[in-house]
TrEMBL record:
This is Dehydrogenase. It comes from the Bacteria. Residues 161-243 form the GFO/IDH/MocA-like oxidoreductase domain. Keywords: Oxidoreductase. The keyword Transmembrane does not apply. It comes from Actinocatenispora sera. InterPro entries: Gfo/Idh/MocA-like_OxRdtase_N, Gfo/Idh/MocA_oxidrdct_glycsds, GFO_IDH_MocA-like_dom, NAD(P)-bd_dom_sf. Residues 7-121 form the Gfo/Idh/MocA-like oxidoreductase N-terminal domain. Pfam families: GFO_IDH_MocA (PF01408), GFO_IDH_MocA_C3 (PF22725). Transmembrane segments: none annotated.
Length: 299
């Protein structure tokens, strides 16, 4: 049996997420080959490309001509436009979350992917962690009455992510997709979500799930992790007690962290080579965008 050739991937973006995750992951192979980088700032594209032994492109169309898949590490509204162009060019898509800033952008991108018949996958990074997958397997067999979750971080106070669309739209758009995705996967399909608070400060969501379970979620990007607080947890409760996942423990597990990127790369390449949608594809992104939109409208 002939070994599959690595998927030739072009990277759009050269910011902190592209530098810290996308470029190293795609360049590590063997399932993928990073064949080029395009960014709004050509000097940033050249620097990132040089660090990984690949080409920098000044022209997006030229990048598309030299790859078979495109990974996006740009703001959601930029991704929504550029990914439509890539889909129409027949390229598979590795998309960041949220897939757009608005529900209309997300729907237009999904329509373009379906029309082009290309493979898409979301970088919902927690879903590729072995220990998160183990938690979700246990959750599937757990009789859940209700759940509580917290996703609290100080990332928007200072540093690489404390600017741009994250500050403007807050935790609902940036952290919300991760948290809602995990609650939906662990407890059941979310049928209704309502919000209270301020997405730029501290926001709470109440979700009603299929089967009658209720979950509550707290989100913030401006709470520094000091003291003894539990800042990033998912807890399910039912007649047999509780089932919990604590991301403080996960963050200390370097093997689990490394494996998630290898799993993401491997599963994306397999989907592209098979020509089949990934489990976490653009439709999952649209589903999460509808929940975000519903929560936002309830404020």
């Amino acid at each position: 049996m002939t070994e599959a050739q690595p998927v030739r991937v072009g990277l759009v973006g050269a910011g902190p997420w592209a530098r810290g995750m996308h470029a190293p992951m795609l360049a590590a192979g063997p399932e993928t080959e990073l064949v080029g980088v395009w960014a709004r700032r050509p000097e940033a594209a050249r620097e990132l490309a040089a660090a990984h032994g690949t080409e920098a492109y000044d022209d997006y169309a030229a990048l598309l001509a030299h790859c078979e898949a495109v990974a996006f590490a740009v703001p959601p509204d930029v991704q929504a436009t550029m990914a439509v162009e890539a889909a129409r060019a027949g390229k598979a898509l590795l998309l960041d979350k949220p897939i757009g800033l608005t529900l209309a952008e997300a729907a237009a991108l999904t329509e373009a992917v379906d029309a082009a018949g290309v493979v898409s996958q979301l970088t919902l990074s927690n879903r590729y962690r072995p220990r998160v997958r183990e938690f979700l397997t246990r959750a599937a067999a757990f009789d859940t009455y209700g759940a509580q979750a917290r996703q609290l971080t100080g990332a928007f106070i200072a540093g690489d992510y404390a600017h741009g669309w994250r500050l403007e739209h807050g935790a609902l758009h940036d952290i919300g997709p991760h948290a809602l995705d995990l609650l939906d996967a662990a407890v059941g399909a979310i049928e209704q979500v309502t919000a209270a608070g301020d997405s730029r400060r501290y926001l709470t969501l109440t979700c009603r799930h299929a089967g009658g379970a209720v979950s509550q979620l707290a989100l913030s990007g401006v709470v520094p992790r000091t003291g003894d607080g539990r800042y990033e947890t998912f807890e399910l409760f039912g007649p047999t007690g509780a089932l919990s996942l604590d991301f403080a423990e996960l963050s200390a597990d370097t093997a689990d962290d490394a494996e998630r990127w290898a799993t993401l790369r491997r599963e994306f390449a397999a989907a592209v080579r098979a020509g089949r949608p990934a489990d976490l594809d653009v439709h999952r992104g649209l589903y999460l965008q509808r929940l975000i939109d519903q929560a936002q409208r309830s404020l």
